[in-house]
Amino acid sequence: MKKFLVLILLAHLACFAGEAQSSEFDNLGTSGAQFLKLDVDARVVGLGGANVAITRGAMALYYNPAGIANMDENSLAFSYTDWVADIKYNYLAYARPISGFGNVGVHAAVLTMDDMERTTLEEPDGTGEMFGANSWVIGVSNAHQLTDRFSFGVTVKYVREKISELSSGSVAFDVGTLYYTGYRTLRIAMSTRNFGTDTKFGGTELETTLDQDNDPTTQPVEVRLNTQSHPLPLSFRLGVAYDFEFDEDNTLMAALDGCNTRDRGQQASVGFEYSWRNQLALRAGYKIEADEEGIAFGGGYDFEIPGFGNLGINYAWADLGRLENAHRFSLALRF
Questions:
Q1: What is the domain class of 40-120+129-334 according to CATH?
Q2: What's the longest Cα–Cα distance across the chain?
Q3: Residue 138, CB half-sphere, CA atoms under 13 Å: how many?
Q4: Which among 129, 240, 241, 270 could disulfide-bond with 118, CB atoms 3.0 to 4.6 Å apart, if both were Cys?
Q5: Other Cβ atoms closer than 10 A to 197
């Protein structure tokens, strides 16, 4: 088992090692599909972004697919994010156990925004023509609990972005592990996210005519503009979590994540969650070495729906510095 854990760790590192650079500033602004960095779970946001060792059920499909491995019931999750500049980010996921095939899940996340007015060099104040932009990702996951302590999961997903008549698409993989150490509730988890093909925009708006000499006796030449490809925002995350159980009703969970991303370097998240009777939760967290994000707070309430299942409602507020703040709501249903 120890040899297997070492191999899994090496596999995580191998996915990321080829992209590592000597300086954390070498790759700033070089990755596409930046929306994949946004959090979807209000619980995670309230914990300062710490996620890899604590997410379970359908919410885990976005962060660490190993988080669905030990489910013995269906899980449905939804979240709504009111981001900056009238940007909305919604998430929907479903996971369930399948006998003989481990646990499986599907998820989709969609980023939308209001239409914008087109501007040109000749009309910088606007042409009166409107255009839209959106981004989305859809993924399918499979996870297995290989031992009573160790779980493994993988996600394959398709990422697409669109702005006006231009679009890009790419395929990516997420790999995650979750290991209970055997010391009380201490667990360690790892995830590698967004390992896949480069993204590159194409479309009819890249087709134009070019008149190099402005000579009325010559015909303009039809050309097709080329765009540069960009890698996805690959990330490697290592996290730990531990529950301090004061009595049957009161628990304090502490979570710490370290994250290395292709285009930003090292960051960390620390979060605390106080839980009363596994129903009422209060959360606080902080993102370390983040550009604008910092402190966050949140809370949640979990209750039973007689004859159906359990519903968890979560809310989080995060300080975004000069970008003011963002609000997130999420629902998690177990049935």
A1: mainly beta
A2: 89
A3: 2
A4: 129
A5: 13
CA distance 106 to 98: 13
Cα–Cα dist 188/181, whole Å: 7
Question: Which pair of structure tokens corresponds to residue 32?
Answer: 């596409």
CB 126 within 8 A of CB 150: no
**CA 280, CA 298: separation in Å to the nearest integer?**
11
Of the pLDDT bands very low, low, confident and very high (cuts 50, 70, 90), residue 44 is very high
Look up the pTM and report it. Answer: 0.84
Lowest-pLDDT range of 65-74, 146-155, 291-300: 291-300
- State the amino acid at position 90 in one-letter form: N
CA–CA dist 62, 106 (Å, integer): 10
Q: Which of 166, 164, 144, 168 is nearest to 154 (CA)?
A: 144
Residue 41, judged by CB atoms within 10 A of its CB (0-12, 13-18, 19+), counts as buried
**Do 43 and 59 touch, CB atoms closer than 8 A?**
yes
SS3 219: coil
Sequence-distant (6+) residues with CB within 8 A of 288 are 267, 268, 269, 270
Tens digits of residue pLDDT in 102-119:
899 999 999 999 888 888
Task: Please give the share of the chain, as a percent, with pLDDT higher than 70.
Answer: 88
CA pair distance 198, 219, nearest whole angstrom? 36
Task: Name 167's Cβ contacts closer than 8 Å, sequence gap at least 6.
Answer: 160, 161, 201, 202, 203
Higher pLDDT, 106 or 210: 106
For residues 17 and 306, is the Cβ–Cβ distance under 8 A? no
Concatenated DSSP letters for 5-68? Answer: HHHHHHHHHHHHHTT--SSTTTTTT--S-GGGGS---HHHHHTTT--TTT--GGGHHHH-GGGG
DSSP string, 51-103: -TTT--GGGHHHH-GGGGTT--S-EEEEEEEE-STT-EEEEEEEEEE-TTS-E
The ranges assigned to domains in the chain are 40-120+129-334
